[in-house]
Amino acid sequence: MTTTTNLAHHATLAELQPGDDIPELRVSPISRRTLAIYAGASGDHHPLHIDSDYAREAGLGDVFAHGMLSAAYLGRLVTNWAGQDRLRSLKMRFTGITHLRDAPHCTGRVSERFEENGEARLRVEMVCANQNGEQKIVGEAIVAIA
């Protein structure tokens, strides 16, 4: 499910200003099936993500999501909104663990308009949090306006 916040009054990317939100991305809660599918697709079969016994022996309550799965959700946030062809850079920092049954909620806000290499661009600050607002990843995207 994707919804918009205060972006509704803007017709184009060119009209966005610092402080404007981009459409959010809400994802279904992380399940064991999600982790198994991601492990197969990514080739990352680390037992902390797929083996409950291993995770418990390591002192964790259970398996948890791959960090790059949450990173992919932030990538989807930006590309759903602006398209892949406008994405110029994407930076992320992991700030927390996404646990089973966490429902990722990704948001972004324009922080700057600028020009680089003769191209008008937007800097977008992003967050992937769970349903309780606990941050899991923070990031930044640079998007071409035109």
From TrEMBL:
Gene3D superfamilies in the cross-refs: Hotdog Thioesterase
Family matches, as Pfam families: MaoC_dehydratas (PF01575)
Coiled coil feature spans: none
Superkingdom: Bacteria
InterPro entries per UniProt: HotDog_dom_sf (IPR029069), MaoC-like_dom (IPR002539)
MaoC-like domain: residues covered: 28-97
Protein's name in the database: MaoC-like domain-containing protein
